Amino acid sequence: MFRRVLGRTLGFMGYTIQYGCIAHCAFEYIGEFVVCSGPSMEPTIVNHDVVFSERMSRHLFKIQKGDIVIAKSPFDPQMNICKRVIGLEGDKICTSAPSDLFKTHTYVPMGHVWLEGDNLRNSTDSRNYGPIPYGLIRGRVCLKG
Fold it and tell me: Of 40, 53, 57, 123, which residue is the catalytic one?
């Protein structure tokens, strides 16, 4: 009796660990669903939109200008941000407002990207915190629900 209960318990634990490892690998290397909140990507992505963020582009260094990405916030590593890639390493970026008389520029350093929200008037992005390291990118948005 005791052997049977112990055998079933260990078997259940084994399956749980196996499925946990499979789920971890799927979320880490394939992708995940993300609920986006905040106005920074409006009108492209509105508050509470669900998107699928695929991870293969990040691992293969296939992130391009114009892609929407999910990244770790440079201010708070517990929070993710959803922004559009405006510049890649080596690109010259205009950092001044369209109405500014004198334009200021900066270059994106190696290993970094420049991210901005589509709603420029209501977005905290690289214009505030500068270019972010490529390693903070979690994935590229490929589906919007």
Answer: 40
91-112 pLDDT, tens digit per residue, is 999 887 777 788 889 999 999 9
Q: Residue 50 and residue 61: Cα distance in Å, rounded?
A: 24
Q: Is the pTM of this model over 0.85?
A: no
Is 83 assigned a catalytic role?
yes
Express each pLDDT in 104-135 by its tens digit: 899 999 999 999 999 988 999 999 999 999 99
Burial 82-120 (b: 16+ CB within 10 A, else e): bbbbbbeeebebeeeeeeeeeeeebebeeebbbbbbbbe
Provide the sign of the torsion angle of the four alpha carbons 50, 55, 58, 63, taken in this order.
Answer: negative
- Are the C-beta atoms of residues 34 and 50 closer than 8 Å to each other? yes
Active-site option among 53, 62, 72, 83: 83
Would you call 40 a catalytic residue per the annotation?
yes
Q: Helix, strand or coil for residue 143?
A: strand
Tokens encoding 83: 């922004």
Residue that has been written with the tokens 């407002």 in this structure? 97
